[in-house]
Amino acid sequence: MVRTGISCPRQERASIHDREETGARIAARIRAAKTRAEVSAALNHYDGGSVAKYTQMVESLDAAVGEVLAALRRSGQEENTLVLFASDNGGERWSYLWPLSGEKFVLQEGGIRVPTIVRRPARIDGHQVSHEPNFSPDWTATLLQLGGARPDPAYPLDGTSLTGYLLRGEELPERDLFWRVRANRALRRGRWKYYQDSAGKDHLKKAWERIAGGLLPCPPP
């Protein structure tokens, strides 16, 4: 849920004009860039945007997911199709991340702890909540196994298949999870997390439940 604090008109799609205008503005900045740093600045700009615009983007995404689910239902493929919804990073400046600290491009919990939704009615019971940690490469291994494929031995996967856990309730093996973005580093081992920020400062925190267990993604209404 996005808490905006303001009233925004419902809009199922950001207008084509808005998208074209934004794309043209960014493309012009890239063409005008003389150095690699200027290109990076053009791509990672922080001007523009608003809570209202962010709300429209979330509503547009929600409507698009609804169209996919409706198409599966109409085609008779809904029951046995695995639908996976996740994010590759935490929120940015218009997101509401309380009580987590950090955001996109930072390896604190606000930058990497994101919800994942899995749906396959014929094989996975609904209304379940799991607190088992996983990360994006796990889904490559999972989808390959579900599809009856094997990874190329020359290119071993970083992730672990979650198929047994999802379909048969098997326990996941203990393992270390690693993250790296820019100069940030992080390691998750059991209930411990090691974090090194871009300034080289180390952060070691234990007792995962004490830090994050039981906390809701936002304050209760």
Automatic annotation (TrEMBL):
Pfam families: Sulfatase
One Gene Ontology MF term: arylsulfatase activity
InterPro entries registered for this protein in UniProt: Alkaline_phosphatase_core_sf (IPR017850), Sulfatase (IPR050738), Sulfatase_N (IPR000917)
Family: Belongs to the sulfatase family.
The name this protein goes by in its record: Arylsulfatase
Species per Swiss-Prot/TrEMBL record: Streptomyces lincolnensis
